[in-house]
Amino acid sequence: MIKHEQISSAQVHFAQVSVNYFSRPSWLGGKPFKALEQLNLTISTHNLAIVGPSGAGKSTLIELLFGLRQPSAGEVYVCGYPLSRSTAKQRQALCRHIQLIPQEPQSSLNPYYSVRQILLEPLSNIGEAEEGEQKVERVLLDVGLDLSLLDRNPQQLSVGQAQRVAIARALIVEPCVLVADEPTSSLDPVSRKQILDLLAQIQKTRHMRLILVTHDFEAAKQLCDEILVLDKGRVVEYGATKKVAMSPNHRITKALMSAHPKSNEFIKTIGEVSYAP
């Protein structure tokens, strides 16, 4: 059984991982699209930002981390376990160590559950529902929400409130690693700053390791010690945040730094993206 208190046990390792998609079966002449190509990466003690334009391989990387997709080659290890060969019991234990903050919070929250039920569910899944009510109230206050929201449904929440509930749901099992998938992409500028400040506070108070998956370079600079830049499934730049920010080498890194990701300047710089789904 994994010992949650051992922070080193939460190491994430991609060992020469490749993921290929086929637009049609290979036996019909389909050619592979390389969503990730020979990714070799260890995440152990630093907060890491994984940045890149749409289609760079960021979503594929998240799917691999949570066992939602199998690599075409190589292996992904979380807490020392190879995900492709882990048992159901091991995968359940891993839920205590690594949790996801999804990109679209409202669509990820069960519309038929109250906020209380949404937060109690992860505890029930790992067999720790005994002190659930106390933990639910504590984590809701930790993310800056009033306890009066506990009986509301997701459709009664603002986007910013829904994102905070999604963060609380990830935090309630006290993971060692928090994976945030574009956590501010659906937020207005004020809510974006508030969520980034909240994540920074969580890092300090809970001593969690953060893996931030984003195309928002400013968010990466605020929250992470290291930055890995992906483009078309390959790592094109990797290093300390301050060093990469001061002297970027790759054109994709420069584009992410110099332009808002949704601006015409950014699209022109990186060119048209035509990747497989």
For the largest beta sheet, what order do the strands appear in spatially?
6-7-8-3-9-10
Main β-sheet description: 6 strands, mixed
Overall number of strands: 10
Average pLDDT rating: 84
- For the terminal residues, how far apart are their CA atoms? 36 Å
Order of helices and strands: EEEHEEHEHHHHEHEHEEHHH
Helical residue percent band = 25-40%
Backbone structural class: alpha/beta
The tally of helices reads 11
C-alpha geometry:
globular
Identify low-pLDDT runs. Answer: 1-8, 261-277
Structure notes:
The structure is a single chain. With about 280 residues, the protein is α/β, with parallel strands linked by helices. Helices cover about 35% and strands about 25% of the residues. It has helices at about 60-65, 90-95, 105-110, 115-125, 130-140, 160-170, 190-205, 215-225, 240-245, 250-260, 265-270; strands at about 10-20, 30-45, 50, 75-80, 80, 100, 175-180, 210-215, 225-230, 235-240. The strands form 2 sheets. The protein has a 6-stranded mixed beta sheet with strand order 6-7-8-3-9-10, sandwiched between helices. Strands 2-1-4-5 form a 4-stranded antiparallel beta sheet, covered by helices on one side. Helix 7 (about 190-205) links the parallel strand 7 and strand 8. The radius of gyration is 19 Å and the shape is globular.
Summary tags:
alpha/beta; 23% strand; globular; disordered N terminus
Précis, in short:
This protein is α/β, with parallel strands linked by helices. The chain has helices at residues 58-65, 88-94, 105-108, 115-125, 132-142, 159-171, 189-206, 217-223, 241-246, 251-258, 264-270; strands at residues 12-22, 32-43, 48-51, 73-78, 81-82, 98-101, 177-181, 209-214, 226-231, 234-240.
